[in-house]
Amino acid sequence: NNDTRILENCLESLVKLIINNPQVGAVGSKLIYANSKQQEAGGIIWNSADGWNYGRLDSPDEPEYNYVRPVDYCSGASLLVPTDLFKQLGGFSQDFIPAYYEDTDLCFVLRELGYQVLYQPQSNVIHYEGITSGTDLSSGIKQYQVINQTKFREKWSKVLTKHLDNDANNVPKAARRLQGKPTILVIDSYVPLYDRESGCVRLLNILKLLLNLGYSVIFFPDNGYPEQPYTSVLQQLGIEVIYGTPQRYNLEEKLIKYLPLIDGVWLCRPELCDKYMDLIRLKTKAPIIYDTIDLHFLRLKRQKDYLDPSYQNTSWSWETYQKLELNYANQAEATVVVTEDEKQVLSSLGVKNVWVIPNIHEEISLSEKVAFDQRSGLVFIGSYNHPPNIDAVKWLCLEIMPLVWASRPDITVNLLGSNLKDEVKELANDQVIVTGYVPEVEPYFQKSRIFVAPLRFGAGMKGKIGQSLSLGLPTITTKIGAEGMGLIDHQDVLIADTAEEFARAVIELYDNMELWQKLADNSLETIKRYQPATVQTNLQALLSNLGIIAKDS
The pTM is what? Predict the structure, then answer.
């Protein structure tokens, strides 16, 4: 419109959303008044053909207005449509000359032809409403708003029967009417930090699979913080993220407001079950899926053999965790673990309806594969907020590698990963490079000859192992590291459980090109068990078992 002012990233964000998606017929912007209040975050059309500016006069920063979603229409004040498609339709319908409802009609036509009409919150436009046509509905061009509403209602009368009544109480459902069904609420400690923790990679992939299956997803981070760029990644996928804002910071109030909209809850970790399960039961009958992430009690039970109790990063003992985890596993309608081993542990303790949803990996396509003789050194990766990883690198550098360096002082170790601690930094020397967090890890894996994961305790499926397998990088690990993946020693990886055995494995593999290539080839074959399509089938079966069946399934 000529009464608008575009803001930074307005056009780019519209183009980004539409350019590579042939199913999208139109993308519209968030409209903001000159006083910074919101005018519209996508439009709602009631069954009476009345329109509703979603979010009008609210803060445009509220989370419900900041994720990509299909809408009834977006205002022609700022609307992007592929040129060929617009010409094919003959432009706006002449039935709505001179103005009003022509943009709404276009969006309805596109949807009838099988296209999506999307709202893009990253595209912000200041709209000086009423400057061009005024506000008096009884005179001038503005009078056609009433005239054309009647035309529109007659034209789309059959379609409008599927729309909701014009009632403010219906706004939350009407705004989400065209999203996937049913709606799954996912609760975890924070938004998935997919480049920092392997558990977050798994959860992000589960969210994507839920979308693929036709579900609508709402994500609730317990810390209430919209950390970037991670939150925007979810929002651009079409996932609604609940977080605190200066205007509305009470997270429990926000959560309660959303619970009537949901059909199932994916609740992670025993601590969050302890915090939210009773509230969820009080406010909704939606079935709860308890995602253990890993069996905390099993990890802590193993951990106590290796770490001083004062070092442990939780005040709860493994016995406390076991009691909690069994309690919530028995309360939930289904429990999710990442390995068959953990399923057997829970089953032996009397837990029923346990499902395995493992880490999700696929072979990573690399621009070029680096040959054996062009690689050097060992590499490790992990978040150092996780005690098993700190123990692993200290054991590696202080006990294993001195045995290797006695005959091969040229072999270096590179420690990658987020949340570096001082005790990890102190391992650095001429032979140990402490790189820490890097946004792109593939180049480091590409130039390293061996991935090492000397994990002495832990539980669940180890994402770092899956990552190395997906990159075709031969791996040396322990029985704990290989747990739950069906990995065979000298077939998929090398397995060693003492410092002496681990050092011998490093020396054996480092110069053995034939063995190295065998493990590299088998790594890529092994990772196929954890491809998205396979896990998606299991996920669909789990949700169907609970009666949460997606409309597209």
Answer: 0.86
